[in-house]
Amino acid sequence: MIFKGIKTTLTAAVLFFCSAAFMGCSSKNSASAKTYKLNQNQLENLLKEKELSDQTRYAIVNKIAENMLQIKDHNSLILFLTEWVENNPEDMYNAYWLLMTAHAYMETNAEPIASYYFEKIIKNYSDLIVQGKSVHYICLQNLIRLSKNPTNKISYYNQLLTRFPKEVSITELYERLGIEYEKVGEWDKAIKSYQLFLEQDDAATIQIPGLPDAYQNTKRIIDFNNSPKDWTFESCDALVAAVKKAISTYNSSALDRYRSKVNFFAMSWRQEETDANAQESFSMRSFMNSNRIRYDAELDEMSSPTEGYLRTYGWSQYINTWYLYFRKVNFPADPDIHGRWEWAGIYFGEKL
Questions:
Q1: CA 182 to chain centre
Q2: How far is 329 from 235, CA to CA, in rounded Å?
Q3: Phi and psi (nearest 5°) for 232?
Q4: CA dihedral sign of residues 152, 155, 161, 167
Q5: Closest by alpha carbon to 39, among 30, 329, 269?
C-alpha cells in the first residue's frame, strides 16, 4: 500500500499545534539546553496519549526527530527512531522513520549501516510518498551511490526501471546496467542492455556523468557483436606476417580483407577514434598503385602484449609514413573471438 501526500494530510490544526505549542525548539540558536530538554519531554509525554490520530502521532514523532537533527544529536535520533519502530510495528510511517535513521548514519559516516537500513526499508516496508517523493525511490538512489557490488547495483537499477520508469532516465539506466552486467560476466544480458540503450531516442545525445563517450563506445560493442568477426587472427605474429606478405606482393585485396570491418579507424595521432572523420572507409588499392611501400622488420618499440604498431612508409607524397595498429580483441561475450588479434586502424604520420 502506498500512502500519498503525508504532508498535506496533516490538518492545519495539527500543524499549528506542533509549531505554536513548542515554538521554543524551532531554532537551536534561540533555545537553551534546558528549554530544549523541556520541550522534548513535553513532546514525548504527549506522544504517550492513547487517543492520538495517526496524523497527530506522525507530527509529534517528526517534530522530536527534527529537533534532534537541528542540534545534530544523531545518536539520540537513531536510538529514538529505532526504538519507536520496534515498539510500534503498526505505524504506517515506519519506512520514513527508518529512512531518517539511515540518513543519520550517513551523517556520521557509517555508510555500511545506512545501506543496511535502506535495504531493510525496501524489503520489509511498504512504500510511502513523503513530500512528493517515494521513500523506496530515495533508498534505491542512495544504495546505487553507496554500493560497490555489481550484483547489488544490477538489482537496484532493475528496480528503478520496473517501479519508477517515469522518475529516471531509462536510457542512462540501460547503459549503466550493461556495464554492471559486464563486471559479473553476464555477457548476454550486457549486450541486451546495450542494445536497448542504443534503441532509445536520446541515446546519441544523452550526457551521462562519468561516461563521456557512452554512445560511441556502446555502438562499437554492438556493431562488433553483430559482425562476422572473420578478419581476426589467432596471434599477433600471424596477423603481422599476413599483412607484411600482402604489402610485399602489393595484394591490396588481401589487405582490405585483413582490416577490421567494424570500427576501423584511419587518423592522425592527435585525433580520437570516436572523431567523426576517423572511421572513413577506403580501399588500400588507391594507395598502392605506383608507390613503393616498405615496412620495418620489427614492430615499433611502443608495442605491448595487447597492442602492436608496424611502421610502414611510401604510401603518399603527402603523408609518407603510416603506422598500422594491431590489437588483441577484448570481447569476452564471444569466447571464440576473445583474445584473437585484429588490424584495428592506421595512424598517419610519424608518431608524436
A1: 12
A2: 10
A3: -80, 155
A4: negative
A5: 30
Q: How far apart are CA 178 and CA 150, in angstroms?
A: 11
The Cα 124–Cα 62 span in angstroms is 21
pTM of the model: 0.82
Rounded to an integer, what distance in angstroms lies between the CA atom of residue 30 and that of residue 79? 25
C-alpha–C-alpha distance, residues 195 and 199, integer Å: 6
Can you read off the three cell numbers belonging to residue 125? Answer: 516496508
SS3 200: coil
CA distance 308 to 318: 24
The radius of gyration of the chain's CA atoms, rounded to the nearest angstrom, is 31
- Residue 208 CB-density burial (10 A; 0-12 exposed, 13-18 middle, 19+ buried): middle
pLDDT under 70: residue ranges of the chain: 1-31, 274-280
Beta bridge partners of 345: 265, 325
Residue type, 93: Y
- Angle of the 111-124 helix axis to the 94-107 helix axis, nearest 10: 170
Burial 320-331 (b: 16+ CB within 10 A, else e): eebbbbbbbbeb
- At 304 the three-state DSSP class reads strand
pLDDT tens digits, 178-195: 999 999 999 999 999 999
What would the pLDDT profile of 308-345 be if each residue is shown by its tens digit? 999 999 998 889 999 999 999 999 999 999 999 999 99
Helix, strand, coil shares, percent, the chain, to 5: 50, 10, 40
In the chain the first and final C-alpha atoms are separated, in Å, by 64
CB-based burial of residue 161 (10 Å sphere; 0-12 exposed, 13-18 middle, 19+ buried)? middle
Distances (CA, A) of 248 to 163, 237, 244, 258, 291: 62, 16, 6, 15, 12
